[in-house]
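At this stage, I wrote out one protein, both as residues and as discrete backbone shape codes, and that material follows here.
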Amino acid sequence: MSRLIVKNIPNLITEAQLKTIFEKKGEVSDVKVIFKGNKNRRFCFIGYKNESDAIKAKEHFDKTFVMMSKISVDFAKTVDDPALPRAWSRHTPGSSAFQKVHKSEEPPVTKKVKQNKEDQQEQEEPKNEVKSKKFQEFLELMKTNKKSNQEISWNDNVNNQVDEIFEKIEKEKPKVVQQPKTSTPANVNERRLYVTNIPYTSTEQELKTVFEKYGTVSSLKIPKQRGGSLSGFCFVEYQLPEEAIRAFSELDNKIVLGRIFHVRPAFKDDKEEQLKQEQQMNQEKMIGEEKSSYKKFKKQQMLERLNDTTSWNTLFLNPNTIIEGISKKYSLDKKEILSEENDDMAVKMAQMETQVIKETKDWLKSIGLNIDFLKVEKNQCERSNITIFVKNIQFRVNETDLNELFSRYGQVNKVFLAPNRSIGIITMQDDKQANNAFTNLQNYKFKGCILYLEWAPTTLMGETNKTNEVNQQVEEQENELTRILYVKNLNFSTTEKNLLKFMSSKVNDIKKVTIINKEGVSQGYGFIEFDKPESAQKVLRLNNLILDDHLLQLSQSKPKPKQDLNKRKQKQEIEPTNKLLIKNLPFEANAQELRRLIKQYGELKKLRLPKKLDGSIRGFAFAEFLNNEEAQNAAESLQSTHFYGRRLVIEYSKEE
């Protein structure tokens, strides 16, 4: 529905002129004028990225004039579309007009006829072989003896050659041959697809939304030319082979984003396998460098959690960096901060970390970055493939050091480093270089500290925001559903033909009628799709529609509700209150330390730490403030703070 065929175009019009004309109704992904040799056949194809734009363009340009030519616009169809009309041209093989012109020539053999002939030949071949073998045996048995020039009788011949016949039978016994199991070639990746004829203006996110309808996409790569433009093809890899097969069957030779996609199974990427083997060897080397078995086990666990986004903490800070930054800011000596006389050292460290986190957030806002991703759950946050967060940085590291470090693995476009050295942001030129730097520098020891890397969210650097796309998809879905009616209370004997005939007597522009069946039995309801929303509204206003002695009940079709697979993990949204629930508390903490930590963000009304029977705390607490604003300030400030090495988890408490 996103590709149009435009007929009766002017002879001298170019593709660039057509693009400027049709771009008025939406983003054009493809323009193709059809030629036969050097002669313009006066029709073309126009592809739009969105179906809604194609529908608007069809309604606007159909039966209008372009350079004194009245054009006709319709939706394009693929060659294997069952709704494609029968061929009638004398130039098309298989049509009746073509056969009249080429009477002397043999009619073209279609695929079905060719296949039937091949099947007949396969069935006849074994029969002919058996007959020819029997006939040859008969001739050999009945031939004359040339040496004696005397005819030998049938019985004599059998007696003389009985041994030869038995030997021949033993040789010709059918051997049981195990047929090879049908499997894909060794060099074909069952989960990977090679897709050609994609739009040159398409982005990775647009293609990902198309392919995610059929399964979970583990990777999507769009090769680029030297100038940076797209090559017109991509590689898509799914998590399961069944998902790749489903995408292949649904998208091959189908119109997507205004173009006809061609999907083929992809071969295994030898370079990727080599990189994986090299990475595995490097990991084994890193694990082997450790002396004790416990350190080897911990190292292996750390390497396995490299790409686990749920364990990433964006605002993780190096404790030494925090102390050095605070001491430099206030001109203090580190000995004064880390004095043994301080009883509440854990509280002071938590307060300093909270202050540095606040400064980091203010710095991110000051350089024009979007920090809304901090409020979103990690599993729902889409990650960039070129921007990297660098954490656990030493205080003496500067921007030039980071630039030199990451320049070893590609071209660095941008480098940002917080003044307090809490976090660094690196933007590489493309995804290959970024991935190379990420895999090589993750857990890399740089100036005495191990670097922790994390892929930045797509919304951080002003990249494509998916909310607008989602809203647009919802609007398109709602507009699509205005043309569909839900009909129930159907007679179980009513067929789709009867329903179509009955509704056609009321309205003319009915596009499709569907009655839901289960195992061949009607379920008593279905859907009616119209060409225009006005026709659907007209039918809704009709009353007393009786078909097969049943009063039909019509209503507007509604979208299918999305099922949440993680219902247990789904958190109920609680309105902000003046009471907070503080979880993941260290068991070493007490009420006095927790009160000192919290009270600076508002007047604390009540603090309660539930305890076990032995008197130790249970790992959570309830803090009640005077008003909601103070509770909200405390929740936002302490959300990423560590207390005795544990990260505090703060939520609003339910009303009792």
Remarks:
- Residues 141-162, 176-182, 463-467, 563-571 have pLDDT under 50 and may be disordered.
